[in-house]
Design brief:
This protein is an alpha+beta fold. It has twelve helices and twelve strands. It has helices at 13-36, 48-51, 63-95, 99-110, 112-119, 134-151, 203-209, 267-302, 305-318, 322-349, 370-377, 381-394, and strands at residues 2-8, 162-163, 169-173, 182-187, 194-199, 217-220, 226-233, 243-249, 255-257, 262-263, 353-360, 398-403.
Length: 417
């Protein structure tokens, strides 16, 4: 099982600026490679060895960063091609009824060289015989592929980050272990000199630190602080238990198991409290937005400099997004902490678990009013699902999904859920 550990880095302002500038250059090179190799003629060459050329390297950063950027761009383009194939398969299932014709189209979609030949309208030579209408099916596949390529957006790296390797970054023990335990030596745009960032991993990270891999990612979080993400390999625990339990994910109470135990009882109150805080601040901001629009209309008519200064003052001091983004991060962290606490409490109180049966909550429609719909939309069932899958993999617990119909029913006599 693969996990990722996060380590916070606290470099000086000068070192932070150097690493961030390197991240921005790395981001530019990734996006440049994506735009260059996103055409039809590179569909069968989406491989690092085929597309690597020394001329394409960015001279502002180390050569290994350029090769990593090329590999990352290829993975993003391959993921795009997977989604396009998936969309084409769904269309073929709906439109084509003959099994032999379906098999022919799926066989063409398997190999990128056939997709390239169809999109460029080249002569197609297949290494297998099919007794089907080849001309008609090739035109049909060209049409649906063209639609899927048009609808799928070209991938883009939006956040600045750095994917490192053995050459570009090294983690070594620090000289004075009383101050710092380790030091990170990172190559940046300032060639010939590495940025040296000392750090102290916490006790929880130290137990996994020896299992770390040489490649890791450095990127800033929402607050602008630098973090280092290191992948580790961990063996899954053996689970010889036979216990089964069913859980119900709810909005009032986060989790209720089949033994009537409740986890996260104050979940509804927490959601309502956070929603009230957000709505009150948003009301104040909406008034200021209205005032700004009125002033802007007056300024268009009069072109008065005093009104223009008022608009700029409002934008800078009243409608800024620094505090707003900080509060957004805080609310996310509080919700995550509550979900983590509830799930960990559930697993610790049920140590003899083999399988967990839970309802499948994907997409469902509801219409209970404006406020209730908003609260249900903010309900973090996606994060709860990810946490349950992670902790089940960690403890070798199986997850069995069931249709959500008639899973949450309360007995009128005894109150059994």
């Amino acid at each position: 099982m693969q996990r990722t550990i996060r380590i916070k880095l606290n470099p000086t302002e000068k070192k932070k600026d150097e690493t961030v500038s390197t991240m921005l250059v790395y981001k530019e090179t990734v996006n440049r490679f994506i735009t260059k190799f996103s055409g039809y003629r590179y569909l069968d060459k989406l491989n690092y060895k085929c597309l690597y050329e020394p001329e394409n390297k960015d001279l502002r950063i180390a050569s290994n960063y350029s090769t990593n950027a090329l590999a990352y761009a290829i993975t993003l383009l391959k993921n795009r091609l997977k989604l396009i194939r998936k969309g084409c398969k769904a269309r073929i299932y709906n439109h084509i009824k003959d099994k032999e014709e379906k098999h022919y189209l799926f066989y063409l979609l398997k190999q990128p060289k056939y997709i390239k030949a169809i999109m460029l309208r080249k002569k197609l030579v297949i290494d297998k015989e099919f007794n089907v209408r080849t001309e008609y099916l090739n035109k049909y596949l060209h049409r649906i592929l063209r639609h899927e390529f048009k609808n799928s957006t070209i991938p883009e790296l939006k956040k600045p980050l750095l994917r490192t390797d053995v050459v570009t970054a090294k983690i070594e023990p620090y000289k004075d272990p009383n101050k710092f335990s380790h030091v990170l030596k990172l190559s940046t745009t300032n060639k010939g000199k590495r940025v040296v960032i000392p750090f102290n991993p916490n006790k929880w990270v130290q137990q996994f630190f020896d299992k770390r891999k040489s490649c890791f990612i450095i990127c800033p979080d929402e607050r602008g602080n630098l973090n280092m993400y290191i992948p580790i390999e961990e063996k899954a625990k053996e689970n010889n238990n036979v216990g089964e339990i069913g859980i119900d994910k709810g909005f009032r109470t986060l989790l209720v198991d089949s033994d009537k135990n409740m986890y996260g009882k104050d979940w509804k109150e927490l959601e309502i409290k956070l929603d009230k805080q957000f709505q009150e601040k948003q009301k104040q901001r909406n008034k200021l937005y209205g005032l700004k629009q009125e002033l802007y209309k007056k300024w268009k008519e009069t072109k008065d400099n005093k009104i223009y200064k008022k608009i700029k003052h409002l934008e800078k001091y009243n409608l800024g997004k620094k505090k707003f983004n900080k509060n957004k991060v805080k609310t996310k962290e509080t919700i995550k902490n509550n979900v983590n606490h509830a799930v960990n409490d559930f697993v610790s109180k049920n140590p003899k678990l083999k399988t967990i049966v839970l309802e499948k909550l994907d997409k469902f429609e509801y219409n209970y009013g404006k406020r209730t719909n908003r609260l249900l939309n903010q309900w973090k069932r996606g994060f709860l699902k990810n946490k349950l899958t992670f902790i089940s993999q960690l403890n070798s617990i199986g997850l069995a999904y069931q249709n959500r119909a008639y899973t949450s029913q309360l007995c009128p006599n005894c109150g059994y859920v």
